[in-house]
Design goal:
single chain; alpha/beta; TIM Barrel; 8 strands; about 45% helix; about 15% strand; globular; Hcy-binding domain-containing protein; transferase
Length: about 325
């Protein structure tokens, strides 16, 4: 497979840190690793192991540094900045640092995967700007991830737009091929592109000095077969394909570990009992990533429960 234009994104920080023994202190989830300096090296090592496995993109570990988890603005600033620094430290230790991009996480601010439980708009804009400012010195791209609705994605983009750094938006999908909000994938992609390009036109200055900040639309925190359906929808819609090309917007996916309740999971368990979390599971997941690439994705990788071993399988399959 032609690999020079394919990037591998590693975003499964929380489960990887728990796997390494991180305590869920006061229910702060992966943010526990940022509150206690004793865990900093664990975060750096997790990033390093994803990079050694073949990842070319890593995501900062501030996903749960949000108002919804109970952090105040000063804490959000401090711990988000720490997350950026730890990712930068991991890149600095790599022997291929020039090829590595750091993505600054812009997470759901209240409840993940709940489009009906979002933050008040102005507070959301202010909080995303706060997170963006804290991450700015350390990251190459902002990643608005696990966005459950078009409105949530727009809020994240608009919040960090004043910082003039490229943004990728990643939608979370339901099992029927829509966003978690029930919005259709194609409509949400079209509307997001229109919104982001219109926002650029509203900025002061001459047109030639303005850049489209939206550089990627991805799908994450979803089952791999649902991501495959979404990416195929984009491929098969000529208008959307042309829009993506016109604005030089990449597409991709980084899914969750295969669920026993998903079609892929049922298939695996019917073939071999205990196949999930096995070598077979890694192979099946990687085959989905190859499908995404065949349908036009140039960024693939993993989210929840996708450990460095999975990333290595993907990297090996891409290089074949």
């Amino acid at each position: 497979m032609e690999s020079k234009n394919i990037d591998i994104l590693a975003a499964g920080n929380m489960h990887e840190l728990f796997r390494r023994g991180l305590p869920n202190d006061r229910n702060m989830l992966s943010a526990s690793a940022l509150v206690s300096p004793a865990h900093y090296q664990m975060v750096i090592k997790a990033h390093e192991d994803f990079l050694k496995a073949g990842a070319t993109m890593i995501v900062t570990n501030n996903y749960y540094v949000t108002p919804g988890v109970g952090f105040n603005p000063d804490e959000i600033r401090e711990y988000s900045q720490t997350a950026g620094q730890l990712a930068a430290d991991a890149r600095g230790r790599s022997n291929r640092k020039e090829d590595i991009k750091i993505f600054g996480s812009l997470p759901p601010l209240m409840h993940s995967l709940r489009s009906d439980r979002t933050i008040e708009r102005q507070k959301g804009l202010d909080t995303y700007l706060l997170i963006g400012e804290a991450l700015l010195p350390s990251v190459d791209v902002f990643l608005a991830e696990t966005m459950s609705s078009l409105a949530e994605a727009k809020m994240a983009f608009e919040g960090v737009q004043p910082l003039q750094k490229p943004v990728m938006v990643s939608y979370a999908l339901n099992s029927t091929g829509q966003l978690r909000s029930g919005e259709e994938v194609l409509d949400s992609v079209r509307s997001l592109i229109e919104f982001c390009t219109t926002r650029i036109e509203l900025l002061p200055g001459e047109p030639e000095g303005k850049n489209n900040l939206l550089c990627g639309i991805l799908f994450n925190c979803s089952q791999p077969e649902d991501i495959a359906k979404a990416i195929k929808q984009l491929k098969e819609d000529e208008d959307v394909t042309n829009l993506l090309k016109k604005h030089e917007i990449r597409i991709g996916g980084y899914g969750d570990h295969i669920s026993p309740m998903s079609k892929a999971g049922v298939m695996e368990e019917s073939l071999v009992s205990g196949a999930l979390q096995s070598v077979m599971d890694m192979e099946v997941y990687s085959k989905f990533a190859m499908r995404w690439i065949e349908d036009g994705a140039s960024i693939v990788g993993g989210c929840c429960n996708i450990a460095p071993e999975y990333i290595q399988h993907i990297a090996e399959d891409i290089s074949k």
